[in-house]
Amino acid sequence: MQWQHSATLPDNFITKPLRQLLMQDWLMPKHLVYSLKLGQRVLVNGAYLPVNFEVRAGDHILLTFLPTDFQTPFQNIAPDSAATVAAVYEDTNMLVVNKTPGSKTHANQPGEVGATLNHVAAYLLPKAQQPYMIHRLDQETSGALIVAKDPAVVPILVRLIKEKRIKRTYLTWVHGRLQSEHGTISIPIGRDPEDKRKRQIGGIHPQPATTHYRVIRRIADATLVAVQLQTGRTHQIRVHFSGLGHPIIGDPLYADDDRRQRLLLHSWRVVLPVPYAFETVRVEAPVPETFIEFEKHSKKS
Predict the structure, then answer these.
(1) Partners of 30 in beta bridges
(2) Span 52-80, average pLDDT
(3) What b-and-e string marks burial along 147-185, b requiring 16 or more CB atoms within 10 Å of the CB?
(4) Among residues 77, 179, 228, 242, which one has the fewest Cβ atoms lying within 10 Å of its Cβ?
């Protein structure tokens, strides 16, 4: 078993040492660069090249990774039905799926099924590939979820998210009419001392949290908002808007709504650099029918 990545350096590529391409441009961790160097598994134009040598526009790079390069090269994720998997973007190394509401991102117990990654495991099974988790979405949140298919892209995607170089935009309907067209919420979030499922403004062991938002439109007593996170705290969007007095519609923890109304929070758009490439893709997960139905119903009321 091995994983390969290849690329031809573009015409506008600035000549630099191979090490700089791998570590600074492609964000490879140092230990992977060392493994490739030790095994002479980094080829430039078909021949091994020491990483201190320069590469230039038009050069073809081929990297070969082995299971021994990784602490956990294989995933123990039980496959479930692939029927609910809707890939809104896919290449040889990763995919972005439109997560369904009510589905956990990952299973919590060995052998457990029903989570999104279980379904993706079934989807990838005919391709002899496995899913690798990059980030999570709350169980009731729908939309774009990035999943790796190759352990060599995992540390790169994780770093891109950590450094906010992957731009994720959420859509949400909140109660009430937000007055400002856009704004920033910078309020620490900690654990709720009375309910371990919840977080709250301040709370136990609060951590800094910053949320940026832009109003898209207002109807009756609700506002559609586009949201981007500067930090990634548990339930951050839900807690911040609840703290403003504008909880997300259908939120089972932070809004006093009819429990038949699903949480109207959707991971809508992802803009991400493609690992081991020189391109950026913009992916959108279609706005859920529940969002559209809520707006129609509100206008009729």
Answers:
(1) none
(2) 96
(3) bbbbbbbbbbbbebbeeeebebbbbbbbbbebeeeeeeb
(4) 179
- The whole-number pLDDT of residue 251 equals 95
Structure tokens given for 245: 């007095």
Examine the residue annotation and report whether 69 is marked as an active-site residue of this protein: no
Question: And the tokens for 10?
Answer: 């573009």
**Two tokens at 280?**
């950026």
Q: For residue 126, what are the contacts with CB-CB under 8 A and spacing of at least 6?
A: none
Residue of 25, 69, 80, 138 marked active site: 138
Measured from the Cβ of residue 256, the count of other Cβ atoms closer than 10 Å reads 7
Least confident segment among 21-35, 118-132, 169-183, 251-265:
251-265
Assign 29 a pLDDT band (cuts: 50, 70, 90). very high
Query: In b/e form, how buried is each residue of 266-275, taking b as 16+ CB within 10 angstroms?
Result: bbbbbebbbb
Query: Alpha carbon 89 to chain centroid distance?
Result: 12
pLDDT in tens, 147-192: 999 999 999 999 999 999 999 999 999 999 999 999 999 999 999 9
Say if residue 301's pLDDT is above 70. no
In whole angstroms, what is the distance from residue 92 CA to residue 75 CA? 17
Specify the DSSP element, H or E, that contains 228.
strand 222-229
